[in-house]
Structure formats: C-alpha cells, structure tokens
Amino acid sequence: MQQLLTEQSEKLQSWKQKLLKALSSNGQIIIDAIAEVELIIGPQPAVVQLGPTESQNRFNRVFQAFIQVFAQVSHPLVLFLDDLQWADAASLQMIQQLMTNAESQYLLLIGAYRDNEVNATHPLIQTLDNIQKTTVKVSTITLRPLALSHVEQFLGDTLIGTQKAQIQLATLLFNKTAGNPFFLTRMLKALYQEKLLCFNFADKRWLWNIAEIQALGITDLTVVELVASNIRSLPDATQEVLKLAACIGNRFNLNVLATISQKTLSQTASGLWSALQSGLILPLNKDYKIPLLFGDRELEVMNFDDSRLSYKFLHDRVQQAAYSLIPANQKQATHLKIGELLLNSTPPEALESNIFDIVNQLNVGIQSLTERAEQDKLANFNLIAGKRASSAAAYEPAVRYLQTGLGLLTENSWLVQYELTLALFVEAAQAEYLNLNFAGSKELVDTTLQKATKLLDKIKVYEIQIQSYASQNKLTDALNTGLEALKLLGITLPSRPTQVNVLLGLAQTKLTQGRRKIADLVNLPQMSDPNKLASLRILAAITVPAYIAQPLLLPLVTFAMVRLSIRFGNSALSAIGYGFYALLQCVLSDINGGYQFGQLALQLLEKFNAWEFKSKVYLIHNNVIRHWKEHSKETLKPLLEGVASGIEMGDIESAGYCCGIYCVNLFFSGEALDDAEQ
Q1: Domain of 290, in residue numbers
Q2: Alpha-carbon distance 568 to 562, whole Å?
Q3: pLDDT tens across 582-609, in order?
Q4: Same structural domain, 309 and 169
Q5: Phi, psi values for residue 282, rounded to 5°
C-alpha cells in the first residue's frame, strides 16, 4: 500500500476505482485489516454484522477480491511472506485459499520459513501438503548453509592473501558460523572493526593474524552477541534509539519511534543515521533522508507524512541484538513506558486503529502494573484488541489478547466489573470456538452461564455454543442447547416431537394469525422486545440442525418463529420464519398460502435490508415454493442472485445449495443439455 500511495494522482484514482469496484460495500473489512487502504479509497460505510462463521467466510472472499485487483495479466503480483513457521491458523488458511482458488491468476507467492522449527505435523507443513494435492504448482528451494568450499571461495573473491592463510581463516570462520551467510558477513565486519582484518595499501592485500583473532575471542561470540558488540560501537544516541526500535518489532515507523524516544523527527532520524550507514537497519522508502535535511517546523510546513516513513532491521538477529542491550530487569518497565507514551499521544478517536501497537507494549509490562484501575484499563484495551483481531479473522491473536484480559481480572470481577468481565468471556468464548479450541470455548461458556445475572447475557453464549456444536457436527447437542435457551426465554418445545405436536403447533399458528390477511402481515410493527428478538435468533440458529437431526422439530421451530412475529412484530429474522412456513404450507397442499408467505418473506428482506439472509430465503422460495405458481425459468435469475449474495455475505452453505438447485432447474426448464452441463 505504501508503494501505491507514491503513485501520481491519476494512477492513484485509477486504483481507487478498481478497488471500490472489487470490494463493493465491503471496503471497511479491508480497512480494518490494512489501515492504509482508507487513504486510497476513502472512508467506507459500516458492513452488515454477520455471525462468526459467515464473517470469516466473507473476510476470506473480500480479501481474495482485494488481491485479484493487483494480480492481473498486465500487472502480475508477487507476494513475499517471511517467517511462515510463526504464521497462525487463520493466515495459513488464507494462504491455502488464495493459492487454490481457481480465480487466482498471475499471482506468485514466495514464502520463507526455518525448516529446523517445523515438523511433519506443523500446521505450515500440513497447509503446504494440502496445496500440493491440488493442481497448484509448488516449488521448494532449500537454502542450505555454505560449505567450507563456499566459504573459501567467498574469502578468495573478497580478500587477497596467500592461499594457506585464506584456508586457515576460512576454516576458522566456517567452524564458528556453521556456514550461516549472515553470521559470516557480520563476523568479517567485526574483524575489520576490531582492526584484526586490515588492508595493506603498499602490498595491495588484506592482512590478518589467526593467532590474534583466536586470542581476542571474537569468534567465540554468538551471532547475537557479535551484532550487539557492533551496536555498542555506535554513538550512544543511536544505541538508545535502536533499543527502543527493537521493542516495537522488526519493522518500525519514524513517527512512532520519535514518540517513544521523546525526540523530534529530525533528532530521531539523526539517531538512526549511524545504524543506516552500518547496514543494521534498512529504509523502506526513499523519503528517509528528508527528516535529516529539514527541521521539524519545515517538515510541518511541507505537510510531510511521517507515518509512511518506515524502517526494518536487517535481520531478526539484529533486532534481538539491539533488544539484548536492554538490561533484563528494565525490559518490562521499558515496554510499559513505551505503551504509556503511545497511549498518551493517541487521540481517543484513533485509539482503536492504534490499539495493537499500544497493547502489545503494555502487555509486556503487565507485571509492573500494581493499581487495580490500571489493570482494569489494560483488560479493556485487550478486549478492544481482541475484538479488532476477530473482525479481521485473526482468531489466534484475538484469543491471546482476550486471555490476557481475562488474566487481569480479579476473582470477584463478576461482582465489581460485571460488564467488562462479561464482554471478555463472551468474546473469548467466540474466538476460542473460531480458533477450533472447542473445549476452551465450552469452559468459558459454562462459566458465563453460571456467573451471568441477566437472561440476555446468558443467551449470548448459548448462541455461541449452538454454533460451536453445529460446526463440530454435534447437531443433537446443538438442538438441546437451543431448546434449553428457549426454555429460559419462555418457549418450550419437545426434544422428541411427534406428528401430534406438529398438528397442534400448526393449529396454534393459524389461530394466532386469525383473520389477518397474509399480505397485511408485512405491515406489522417492528419487533422491539429484546427477549423476543433473542428467541428468534435462537430459533433461527437451530433450523438447520433440526432439519437434519430431528426433522419433526423443524415445523415446531418454524411455527414458533411465525407466532412470535405475528404477536410481537416483524424483524429481519422473520423472513426466515415466514420462508420455512411457506415451505410447510406447500407440503400441506396449501399452495396459495405457501406462495403468499413466500412473497411475504421476500418483502421483509427488502423492508429490513436483511441481505445477510437473502441467500437462505431465496433458496427456500425458489427451490420449493415458486415453481407451484410460476414457470421454473423464473427461478433461475433469483437463484444466481442467491449464489452471489451468499458468497458476498459469507453464507457459503446457502450459496452452494442455490447453485445446485440452479443447475437442476436449468435442466428441468428445458435448456440445452450442453448449457446445463456448463
């Protein structure tokens, strides 16, 4: 994105139009993950709130569309991802989907990982195996350590000396560096800095003394110790700024570094200059010299964008070396101070967008917090970070933030910090379930059900547990959990219904409708009772488990949704209830009534802009209702709309069914077999 922002305004406008077209109404999803995108496409409207599974599906689809904007035949895209051995499950899943998606073209993904840190059961290796099982071409390049002959050749090209002396030095360096190229080059620079490797201008060759090198012990240092000694030779100001930069991470921005250094931009950039010259850090754009040439007042007049000026450490070992210079007993306090400086310099409206930088620092210094108010404040910050990570489908980091927040709570937090405690438990339960830690999620749910004092607070985790059971294909458990929640809400449904229960439920529903015309039900007031809305959510959540595991329960669930809607008003979820009721009416041979209820469901989608349910309702209406009154050809276009909507909203299941029914209806509509096959 930073490279894109350097384009001329005309090109930038072109990229803006391409991105807006590809992202449609989901631009905010990408902005939440990559904040710089907002500088290109501008502020975006809030997206429709979906269930956790649908949100993850939607994120994956939108991110793929985002990548495909840049991966074109006229503009191929190469992505390089380093340190994949540390990638979380969500990132690996995204990599697999990107590479196996049939629409992914003109994309080359280069990944690097340390093979000594993974094994056959490591998630990265399993992901690569899954990709290789497809038609995607995967090439593996193993970067092995340099052999002794390579080191000899390297020194022969670099140094001019006697062959015997070169072989002695090469053997010494090879034994000490194990052929690691980075370590080897740092070792040579260290020898030069210590004047153990000197150039004789008279003889025009390099000179060294093996005995002196061994006596000084420089070759006995580890690579981190060696780089640390290099850093100690730099000016004090450079050492201090590098130590702070190491606390931020492998990459860091000048403005953030200036904030935590409590220096001006120009002073901070000057402090980094010696490290740049020695090659310990690298600039990530060409503007890095500007703060060296102009003072802060001049930069302000120039409207210089300091947020785009970034650097990175040459190697993660350089970062480790700089970090090692901070005394162990000062590390936590240093991180805590950095976090507090970042927090104090961040306006309230920008807190959420900068929450990771702040919380990552404060969490390291967590042991230094002694005041209860400070601990509660940090717990809330971790809640914000966890929510933001979850919204970007980064569930593993989300779990870490939320668990850190939970760890900051006191034993009586349910009494003294009820809302914060509840929010952390609910968010953590959902994140754990999405991170496939079902047992951990269940434990959090059980605790919440025991400690929560409000009914609707308990319903939140009941919904999570239903989704968790359904994703594990434990449909009976999902149903029992839903029925338990409904009982608390005043709705009792039998766990093993009979046909008598169904007939009684149908009679009650017809009595509830009374003399109201079906067409008039669209004008019912909007449902506002929180308990009734929660009841509809639970009923909707168990429709699919009921259909598969306990078919006779589905009519009772449907009847309950319709009765709630008629008695207490319509909501977006009423469209699903009326859709299933329309299906049952058709099954019971009331074709006219079924068709009208189907039309009612469609009208409510429009009325409430309930596009998150469009695919599901279109599936029901165009699969089992519409053909009774209209030619099957009339279902084709809506089914394709159902496919598109389901994909856009993350409802992959309904989108898949719409696609299957479309193919069937295409065949029964008398289309040419070749077209139907395509």
Answers
A1: 228-326
A2: 10
A3: 999 998 889 999 999 999 999 999 999 8
A4: no
A5: -130, 140
